[in-house]
What we know:
With about 280 residues, this protein is mostly helical. Helices cover about 85% and strands about 0% of the residues. The chain has 11 helices and no strands. It has helices at about 5-25, 25-45, 55-75, 85-110, 115-130, 130-140, 145-175, 180-190, 195-210, 215-240, 245-270. Helix 6 (about 130-140) packs antiparallel against helix 7 and helix 10 (about 215-240) packs antiparallel against helix 11 (about 245-270). It is globular, with a radius of gyration of 20 Å. The termini are far apart.
Amino acid sequence: MSASSARNATHRADRSLAAAGRHWSWAAVLGVGLALFWLLRVALISTGNPNLVPSLIFLGAAVVPVTFVTFVAGRRLDFGVGPGIAAVTALVGGVLGVATAGVLEYRALLATHVLPVVVVGLIEEAAKLLMPLLVLLAVEDRHPADGLLVGVAAGAGFAVLETMGYAFVALVDSGGDLAAVSGLLVIRGVLSPAAHMAWTGLTSAALWSAATGARRGRGFVVFAGVFVVTVALHAAWDGFATTGAYVVLGAISLSLLVVSTHLLASARAARVPLAPVV
């Protein structure tokens, strides 16, 4: 084998190893996150130190969402945004989304004295899109798959902050019962990829595809349709609020996200922009 062939073989092997590491990095994030959560819980139970409670709540709320964002980022898609933008989107988008949704829902409740689940779904799905829209306007090198990544990141930030709020309320209402808090963190952590993260990933991917595609009129019609579907899924999730409904709606939401990911991957292979379809 010539020196040039050997270098090419080594280069291909390095690229394959790097691709495998990126593909499976989510497993490392999940494993480390769960281990740290367990260590914090053991430390809190053994010491009774209340200073550890915020860390436990944050870690419990963040492990699964961060894992899911890492999982999406490791797919074979044409991403233009890097990990830094995804992290900023999760942080700023989560705060912006939670704050905006909280204010709008409060104002709507004051005005109507009732807050239908459809209104909640409409407000929250729109609020979570604020940061992906800002990123879309700010970057010049736009890739349709970026919408999927920043959407999932924004949904993750929203889910983490919302879960932390619910966990704090559960801690206060239960008189400091860690079992109640841990149970809530597990349930909401497991469900978050099938809820906020999937819905915002779908709508953001459709928005970016519309903005980067050749047929923008059709793209924005598709985006409007995707947005209506995600609001309906959100409203159904809040309205039924049963384990069976969560399973069915979660399966539908994640299936739509998988289909959109497949379409974006196919478009990347064909070098043709393509909007996710539901």
